[in-house]
Amino acid sequence: MQLRSVTTVTLLSISLLFIFTPNAHAHNITRLLADHPEFSTFNHYLSLTHLAGEINSRTTITVCAVDNAAMSDLLSTHPSIYTVKNILSLHVLLDYFGAKKLHQITNGTALAATMFQATGSAPGSSGFVNITDLKGGKVGFSPEDNNNQINTYFVKSVKEIPYNLSVIQISKVLPSDVAAAPAPGPAETNITAVMSAHGCKVFADTLIADVDAEKTFESNAEGGLTVFCPGDDAFKAFLPKYKNLTAARKTALLEYHGVPVYQSLAMLKSNNGDMNTLATDGASKFDFTVQNDGMDVTLKTKVVTAKITGTLIDEQPIAIYTIDKVLLPKELFKAQAETPAPAPAPDVTADSPKPSTKKSKKAPSPSDEADTPSPADDAADQVADQNAAVRFDGARFGSLIVCVWWIVKTMLFF
């Protein structure tokens, strides 16, 4: 009987461990480095160059951080932001190197690919870094195009999540003439032309007709812009309601479909949470929530939930995605009552983008119109979605039920 009880407890413990062990470990490099002020400049430029999002989207990565003094030396030459990105991407190794591994390198040397190599901007093997375990406990780093000269060394381990993320400090910026070469900025992109040619002509034409909204999109394009354009069928169906809006509301609705930072699809998937838009202005939030639903990315307002259906362009600093519905902000439309979820997940909020670079203006109030449109056909979209970062796993819950039933049956009949 005692053996049977021990077996029962063991099986139950294994089941619970199986159910509640997370599928993958998520990390946020900017939040991690925020606890280390000596890397504040390095951290700032990871965000400014959008490398942070790319780092967060990877499951196996090593970040070679440099302190503020080293970054000051780099910035003293006044490189463009695109050159800084190339240099810093050379400091992101696409493999896990914790302190222990660095001192136990097979044959004393290893060649690591970097994010600079992965971008395709590095000719030949210039995007690789040699790591050498030297005598006296030192570990040296040298880019492939540095003629095997080692003058950068391992200082300390900052943070290790075994086999997923390692953040280490190295003594100085890795010298690479290729990475430090002047990098051209992206060619100017005609946003409305791209949308018109790829199934979003109605939205693009409507944007062109609104001078204020078009100017807001254009003024944010150089610094970073993400656009979510509704497909032609979706926006055509919405046009009767759009025509009933005041001029200020029309502008706000169009600007609500733009985000004033560049967001790749990988970044959207790894940064679930609330996101500001071009319409955000002081007390007028005009935000929506980005959520994952399996492989899909959804944009949820209090009125409607839209899904990203395609990518028209994803080239820093601009990304344009197609969506299956018009985004309706709660500031302009009546919010639908949300169906309470049986077990709501904790609220996970992403770092919101900065407000758009536009002149402050009075936000359209509900009193601007006597009859505020309230689309009834989108009520089905209001069922609360579980946030992808804390998603309920039905298969594992089913396994728990079956296991508990088997254990109870065993205890009752034996």
From TrEMBL:
One CC-aspect GO term: side of membrane
Membrane topology: Lipid-anchor; GPI-anchor
GO terms under biological process: root development; shoot system development
Superkingdom in the source lineage: Eukaryota
Compartments in which it is found: Cell membrane
Keywords, sorted A to Z: Cell membrane, Glycoprotein, GPI-anchor, Lipoprotein, Membrane, Proteoglycan, Repeat, Signal
Signal peptide: 1-26
Broad class of where this protein is predominantly found: membrane
Pfam families: Fasciclin (PF02469)
UniProt entry tagged with the keyword Protease: no
Biased composition (Low complexity): 338-355, 363-382
Domain FAS1, residue spans: 26-174, 187-327
Region (Disordered) location: 338-382
InterPro entries for this protein: FAS1_dom_sf, FAS1_domain, Plant_FLA
Role this protein plays: May be a cell surface adhesion protein.
Record family assignment: Belongs to the fasciclin-like AGP family.
Protein name as annotated: FAS1 domain-containing protein
Native species: Castanea mollissima
